[in-house]
């Protein structure tokens, strides 16, 4: 066995770009008692000209390496050598310099992880053409005689892992892996690189009372001749994937086949079987919906959902090709309804990632936002179809609000090397990872609004159809290709796309719009003043933008492409005015013609009110408060900016209190209702009309329950001496009318017949 060594700089720079893994076989035995795995892996590799193959292998004990059956020399060195802390930290003199030093250490560690640390010396001789015939290529085809000669070697590595700390985890009689970045190397030698994909043969030998579930199709299971008897599970994955998506879970699982589809199965520990049966009953609906929406069959031959105890799980979700590992916290029994929505969305999202992220992958780190966004978009289509349009719009509105608050630096620039490639994948972790994911979905939904839902759906179908083309060697997708599809399939014009992608995808920051209105009675028009800003500082936004693809030199903030709609609700109806340009001058003064005939007729009536000096009121300069306090003076009921959420924007709209009350009471859109409640709650001075409007909305059983909950919180937050604690009194009265039994003087039992009413009352307990 070779000893680990510290690789020299010139060794680290050895060119391994030509080495390609065409196929890999993994055979492992698992000893739960000793927390140990041992076995071997065989890799069919196209060896580069220098004869050296570099693999990734962290915390693995390599016993031997053979090449085509012959012992081979190899060198292995640790990725994490002991650093000279004195030299590295001697310059630290403040918190700022300490942060810089820590950041430098972290980045250097990430850089070292990219370098192969298991170097295998292979013979440089090239096989003859006759010897190469019949060997499978990287996509399970046959190498044609017309292709150039390749030095293909079969490399076998015998190794073992004991008491692993990352990548693979033991807990009692349960073992599972995780798909954290660059952690596949911690349980089997591989090319742990997003550009390396191959098919796999997998064999796992476990105790007879355990079940081993892994990626791919289960071919068979066979008992061994060991004493005591053990069982070997044999899997085959015919779809080339990266090493990161190879997963394994071993435990005394209970297996629940799906009642509606033979390729779906669900597994959990015995204590959770009843919860599992109740939780996954819906799942075939999501599975069928995705296949129907994409007009394609599931890309893998099977799909398995595995649920393990929460104390064992590294994260709530760990993805693998054709399987997902969840924490059993998402499971619920028939008596629990609180978890239903979140669990279904989580399971649906994991399934969507199988299509976009595992099966179809990003061409480069700068393109990962696109696959993440497409998976989120597909999940939103499930929410809209099975959980309702109100749920989908409300969740998207809240996600957009969160993005606007956090999109203020280069870390949220989706397709920018500083935020993607240079961070080595870590930009997808934590809070910023969630913000980037929400922003990706919002951008794709903006494109869907521009081209129409059917055109966008057609693009996704084309992407999947292209990936299933067996003549293509790779199943990758780039931002540039998607932009091409938006033009050719979505019929969006090139000038628009040339502005859209650099500004939204390659840059950071969202538009901030501050609006105020005045009604011009003489002209029967709404005068709308708009000030446009950006959530990101001008310097940050311009710096990121100028470094992005297809961007031109820009002087200052030129805005965003397109026109925003202003929706005016008048006495005679609703009218949309797509007249607000998102580029150009930051100050805008717009005029919106009113359509109400009633207002025009009233203007023709003789004026009854005149000033003591005999002069008339100036209709062109009508006081704003006069117009807003009396509906008879104006045809306006309320106004909304960007009602269809066509922009990812932070909007501050200044309109009279009565208009906000009208919006809350009369607008059926859940986003409009939530915006009205947030504005009314934040008013510096509250009137009884506001409190009554919030109470009336809370009591409306036809309103969406999530917005009713916001109204309840608003009533609680606005209760004060100024309103004689009216909000609190309304809440108590509402709760007692639903939950209090006057005959016995005690609360009534929970009523689960009306879920929305239950959720509203639950927040008051």
Automatic annotation (TrEMBL):
Pfam families: Peptidase_M1 (PF01433), TAF2_3rd (PF25316), TPR_TAF2_C (PF25577). InterPro entries: Aminopeptidase_N-like_N_sf, Ig-like_TAF2, Peptidase_M1_dom, Peptidase_M4/M1_CTD_sf, TAF2, TPR_TAF2_C. PANTHER family: TRANSCRIPTION INITIATION FACTOR TFIID (PTHR15137), TRANSCRIPTION INITIATION FACTOR TFIID SUBUNIT 2 (PTHR15137:SF9). It comes from Davidia involucrata (Dove tree). Residues 602-626 are annotated as: Disordered. CDD domains: M1_like_TAF2. One of its GO terms (cellular component) is transcription factor TFIID complex. It comes from the Eukaryota. This is Transcription initiation factor TFIID subunit 2.
């Amino acid at each position: 066995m070779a000893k680990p060594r510290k690789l020299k700089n010139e060794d680290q720079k050895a060119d391994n770009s030509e080495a390609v893994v065409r196929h890999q076989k993994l055979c492992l035995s698992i000893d739960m008692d000793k927390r140990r795995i041992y076995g071997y892996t065989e890799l069919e590799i196209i060896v580069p000209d220098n004869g050296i193959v570099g693999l990734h292998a962290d915390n693995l004990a390599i016993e031997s390496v053979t090449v085509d059956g012959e012992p081979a020399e190899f060198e292995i060195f640790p990725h994490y050598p002991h650093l000279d802390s004195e030299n590295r930290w001697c310059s630290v003199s403040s918190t700022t310099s300490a942060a810089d030093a820590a950041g430098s250490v972290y980045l250097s560690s990430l850089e070292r992880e990219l370098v192969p640390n298991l170097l295998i010396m292979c013979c440089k001789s090239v096989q003859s053409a006759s010897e190469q015939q019949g060997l499978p290529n990287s996509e399970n085809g046959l190498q044609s005689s017309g292709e150039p000669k390749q030095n293909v070697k079969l490399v076998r590595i015998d190794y073992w892992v004991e008491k692993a700390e990352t990548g693979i985890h033991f807990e009692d009689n349960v073992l599972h892996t995780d798909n954290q970045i660059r952690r596949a190397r911690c349980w089997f030698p591989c090319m742990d690189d997003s550009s390396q994909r191959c098919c796999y043969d997998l064999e796992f030998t476990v105790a007879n009372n355990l079940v081993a579930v892994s990626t791919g199709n289960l071919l068979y299971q066979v008992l061994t001749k060991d004493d005591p008897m053990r069982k070997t599970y044999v899997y085959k994955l015919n779809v080339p994937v990266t090493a990161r998506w190879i997963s394994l879970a071993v435990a005394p699982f209970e297996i629940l086949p799906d009642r509606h589809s033979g390729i779906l199965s669900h597994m959990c520990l015995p204590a959770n079987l009843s919860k599992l049966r109740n939780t996954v009953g819906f799942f075939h609906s999501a599975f069928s919906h995705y296949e129907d929406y994409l007009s394609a069959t599931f890309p893998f031959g099977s799909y398995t959902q595995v649920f393990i105890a929460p104390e064992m799980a590294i994260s709530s979700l760990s993805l693998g090709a054709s399987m997902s590992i969840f924490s059993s916290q998402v499971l619920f029994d028939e008596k629990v309804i609180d978890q239903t929505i979140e669990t279904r969305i989580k399971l649906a999202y994991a399934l969507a990632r199988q299509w976009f992220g595992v099966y179809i992958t990003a061409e480069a780190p700068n393109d990962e936002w696109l696959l993440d966004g497409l998976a989120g978009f597909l999940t939103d289509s499930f929410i809209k179809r099975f959980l309702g349009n109100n749920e989908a719009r409300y969740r998207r509105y809240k996600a957009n609000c969160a993005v606007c608050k956090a999109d203020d630096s280069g870390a949220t620039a989706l397709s920018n090397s500083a935020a993607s490639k240079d961070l080595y994948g870590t930009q997808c972790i934590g809070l910023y990872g969630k913000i980037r994911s929400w922003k990706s979905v919002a951008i794709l939904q903006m494109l869907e609004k521009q081209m129409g839902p059917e055109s966008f759906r057609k693009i996704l179908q084309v992407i999947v159809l292209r990936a299933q083309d067996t003549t293509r060697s790779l199943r990758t997708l780039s931002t540039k290709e998607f932009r091409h599809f938006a033009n050719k399939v979505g019929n969006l014009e090139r000038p628009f796309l040339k502005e859209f992608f650099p500004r939204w995808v390659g840059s950071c920051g969202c538009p901030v719009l501050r609006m105020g209105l005045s009604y011009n009675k003489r002209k029967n028009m709404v005068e709308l003043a708009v000030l446009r800003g950006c959530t990101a500082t001008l310097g940050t936004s311009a710096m990121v933008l100028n470094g992005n693809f297809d961007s031109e030199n820009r002087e200052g903030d030129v805005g965003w492409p397109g026109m925003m709609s202003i929706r005016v609700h008048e006495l005679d109806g609703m009218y949309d005015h797509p007249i607000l340009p998102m580029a150009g001058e930051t100050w805008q003064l717009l005029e919106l013609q009113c359509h109400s005939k009633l207002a025009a007729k009233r203007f023709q009536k003789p004026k009854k009110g005149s000033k003591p000096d005999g002069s008339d009121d100036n209709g062109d300069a009508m006081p704003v408060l006069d117009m807003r306090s009396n509906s008879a003076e104006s045809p306006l009921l309320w106004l909304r900016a960007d009602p269809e959420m066509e922009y990812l924007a932070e909007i501050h709209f200044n309109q009279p209190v009565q208009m906000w009350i009208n919006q809350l009471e009369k607008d059926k859109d859940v986003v409009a209702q939530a915006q009205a409640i947030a504005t009314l709650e934040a008013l510096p001075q509250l009137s009884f009309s506001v409190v009554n409007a919030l109470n009336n909305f809370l009591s409306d059983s036809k309103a969406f329950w999530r917005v009713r909950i916001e109204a309840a919180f608003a009533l609680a937050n606005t209760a004060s001496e100024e309103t004689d604690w009216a909000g609190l009194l309304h809440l108590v009265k509402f709760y007692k009318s639903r939950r209090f039994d006057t005959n016995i003087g005690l609360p009534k039992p929970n009523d689960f017949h009306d879920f929305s009413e239950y959720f509203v009352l639950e927040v008051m307990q």
